[in-house]
Amino acid sequence: GISHPIGECLAYWDCESDTITVADPSAFPKILTPENPYSRLPPSVLLRTLLTHELAHALVYQSAGPHRIDIVDQEYVAAALELEYLADVWREVLLQASPMSLPPKVGLIDIWIYGLAPRKFATNAWQHFRQDGNGCDLVMRIVEGQFSFK
Q1: Cβ of 8: how many Cβ atoms within 10 Å?
Q2: Distance CA 105, CA 103 (A)
Q3: If we measure between CA atoms, which residue out of 50, 53, 42 comes closest to residue 23?
Q4: Staple partner for 109: which of 84, 141, 142, 149, CB 3.0–4.6 Å?
Q5: Using CA atoms, how far apart are residues 54 and 92, in angstroms rounded to an integer?
Q6: pTM score > 0.85 for this model?
Q7: 72-120 pLDDT, tens per residue?
Q8: Are 38 and 32 in contact (CB under 8 A)?
Q9: What is the structure's pLDDT at 57?
């Protein structure tokens, strides 16, 4: 794994240096426990998933201009886009591994939920993202500082 200010992770985007760091994909099977939903993805699919997540962080940060985007909003966008851009078969693998009931619950889009159950947070965020009136329009409102889940 990679040492990050908030703990060990597989990948992260550093806004200070404008870089993305990713653990060696060949080490994913050794790093991930069988209970981790990510362990169900082939390393090449997981690498793309992690890069999508981190690139979403970078895009939100760089597009926000003077707006400070709260961490829960950052994680919402990154989690939703991570699942949105997965092939259907792999998205279904992650959704089945971390099921959440429908409709999605806005109250669960919370940084504490992300910290305690990041894959369930992601499932809920993606389901919310896919609802009418959300999607990219909501992401733009977040980036423009017009909306926050905080």
Answers
A1: 10
A2: 6
A3: 50
A4: 149
A5: 21
A6: yes
A7: 999 999 999 999 999 999 999 999 999 999 999 999 999 999 989 999 9
A8: yes
A9: 94
User: What distance lies between CA 52 and its chain's CA centroid?
Assistant: 8
Q: Which two tokens stand for residue 85?
A: 């851009």
Query: In terms of DSSP bridges, do strands 2-4 and 11-14 run parallel, antiparallel, or are they unpaired?
Result: unpaired
pLDDT single digits (tens) 43-57: 999 999 999 999 999
What residue has token string 């760089």? Answer: 62
Q: Judging by DSSP bridges, how do beta strands 19-22 and 11-14 pair with one another?
A: antiparallel
Question: Are 34 and 25 within 8 A, CB to CB?
Answer: no
Reported as a single tens digit per residue, the pLDDT across 12-55 is 888 888 899 898 999 999 889 999 999 999 999 999 999 999 99
Give the confidence band of 67 by pLDDT, cuts at 50, 70, 90.
confident
Q: What is the 3-state secondary structure (H, E, C) of the chain?
A: CEEECCEEECEEEECCCCEEEECCHHHHHHHCCCCCHHHHCCHHHHHHHHHHHHHHHHHHHHHCCCCCCCHHHHHHHHHHHHHHCCCHHHHHHHHHHCCCCCCCCHHHCCHHHHHHCHHHHHHHHHHHHCCCCCHHHHHHHHHCCCCCCC
